[in-house]
Design brief:
- This protein folds into two domains: 59 residues; 194 residues, 3-Layer(aba) Sandwich (Rossmann fold).
- It contains seven helices and eight strands.
- Strands 3-2-1-4-5-8-6-7 form an eight-stranded mixed beta sheet, with helices on both faces.
- Helix 3 packs across helix 4.
Length: 277
């Protein structure tokens, strides 16, 4: 068989280049199609959530307040929030509920009150007092999540007005990074807890203040543990991750797992179980 001529080699090279270009174009088109499919699915999801919301708007006009304040307030029982974020918030209360059965609980910075209701009705707390600084949030909580054994009050977390040693468990999620004086907040938690009482507390893991305008500080693992130790012994520390595409989920699956020296940097938030000193 004769050796390939220069023109044959050029033809082969041109064909290879053309094939590579064609493959690249096909990959780009496939990526575009996948992106369009995802956008369509996102649109279907939004429409589905709006359809679910219509009965709420018709019979529960206070949902309008929630919609106007959804960047600050969460109620995962109302389908206006991203499901991943809603699950992330509710997962904390599911976790905390295991520490509350038959006990007196204070839910500090309770927001819209869905978590307080969960601690009482699912967690089996004997009673739950929900405290929040926002009167509109407390009014919403009373209307939407009130019931027997649930008491909602407007007050700052640093000065709840609750009696000394009146609670067995304090639950406070995503609060400590919002207040000017974190030690004063923890001192109040310690004051209202009975001897041996537990604190279930959470905070984001190094979320930059630039993306969290309502936060006044960031905590890493050591900083969070250190401030808690002013008034509490930290019994357990856990990583919580949402499993969403949020950058600071750090590509982790949804869940709550024990914090270790290996995985602490991957936490989206930290959850601490503490006992009053």
């Amino acid at each position: 068989m004769a050796d390939a001529t220069p023109s044959d080699s050029m033809t082969i090279a041109n064909n290879s280049t053309a094939m590579a270009n064609l493959q690249q174009q096909v990959q780009q088109q496939l990526k575009y199609i996948q992106n369009q499919r995802q956008q369509l699915q996102d649109l279907r999801d939004r429409i589905g959530r709006l359809e679910q919301l219509l009965p709420f708007l018709r019979y529960r006009p206070e949902i309008q307040w929630l919609m106007e304040n959804k960047s600050e307030r969460m109620d995962p029982t109302v389908p206006i929030f991203d499901p991943g974020r809603a699950d992330f918030h509710l997962d904390r209360y599911v976790f905390a509920a295991t520490y509350c059965r038959t006990l007196r609980v204070a839910d500090i910075a309770c927001g819209t009150g869905y978590g307080s209701e969960h601690l009482k009705k699912v967690g089996g707390a004997s009673r739950v007092v929900g405290v929040d600084i926002c009167p509109e949030a407390i009014q919403y909580a009373v209307t939407q999540h009130g019931g027997e054994g649930l008491d909602f009050r407007t007050a700052p977390g640093e000065a709840t007005g609750l009696e000394d040693a009146s609670c067995d468990v304090v639950v406070s999620f995503e609060t400590i990074e919002h207040v000017p004086d974190d030690r004063a907040l923890l001192a109040e938690f310690a004051r209202i807890l009975a001897p041996g009482g537990r604190l279930v507390c959470s905070t984001p893991n190094l979320w930059p203040l630039a993306i969290a305008p309502h936060h006044v500080r960031e905590y890493d693992r050591q900083q969070f543990v250190s401030v808690l130790q002013c008034h509490f012994e930290v019994l357990e520390l856990w990583n919580q991750n949402s499993g969403t595409s949020f950058e600071f989920n750090r590509q982790q699956p949804r869940g709550i797992v024990p914090t270790t020296d290996v995985n602490h940097s991957l936490a989206e938030c930290f959850l601490a179980i503490c006992v009053r000193r």
